[in-house]
Write a structure and sequence with these properties.
This protein is an all-alpha fold. The chain is 62% helix and 0% strand. It is built from three helices and no strands. The N and C termini lie far apart (82 Å).
Length: 108
């Protein structure tokens, strides 16, 4: 009997979820998690869902403790990322120009 009830409950849940969109299911899951954390008193047990969120933007500048050696260590990777980004933007521009029947001229 218990097995039949579980199967019936699963089928009812499936019917409810089939009627919901993907975003609605995610929101529903989020709401259920919030309710469960409130009912079980996670915050009083020291489990914080979000914690303190600082306001404003962080200070702009070079991080403390970052020396010349560290900059040299990350420079090759940074240059590689910059080159890949440049190549990607050129590829996108060429594809856009081809779709629009425009020819890109690199030199005047």
């Amino acid at each position: 009997m218990a097995r039949a009830n579980r199967k019936k409950n699963r089928s009812q849940l499936a019917l409810v979820q089939d009627g919901l969109g993907q975003r609605d299911r995610a929101q529903n899951t989020l709401h259920q998690a919030i309710i469960v954390s409130y009912l079980f008193g996670f915050e009083s047990a020291g489990i914080y869902i979000v914690g303190e969120i600082p306001t404003g933007l962080p200070d702009f500048g070079i991080p403390e403790g970052l020396g010349f050696e560290e900059l040299l260590a990350v420079a090759p990777g940074a240059i590689g990322v910059a080159l890949v980004a440049f190549a990607e933007s050129v590829a996108i521009a060429r594809a856009y120009g081809t779709n629009r029947q425009n020819n890109l001229k690199w030199h005047n």
